[in-house]
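QA checklist item 7 of 12: single-chain prediction sanity check.
[x] sequence parsed
[x] length recorded as 72
[x] structure emitted
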Amino acid sequence: MRMAVSVPVSQLIEQLQGPNPPLVLDVRRAHVFAAAPSQIAGAERRDPDTVADWSSELDRERAVVVYCAHGQ
């Protein structure tokens, strides 16, 4: 398992434009997501309360970037 790290926006943009872009997951709570004026283009919305249900479906060979509203 890889260690969690912060990714600067400039680095994420570079990675998203590269040949092997990371999977970007938006794990903001439903009420925060619904009220948000925007999201990262191409991000997949996933419920953080059900991570045990969907985490096994992730491609283990692909980098994953997760973002939320509060950095928890």
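[x] summary fact logged: The first helix runs from residue 9 to 16.
[ ] second reviewer sign-off
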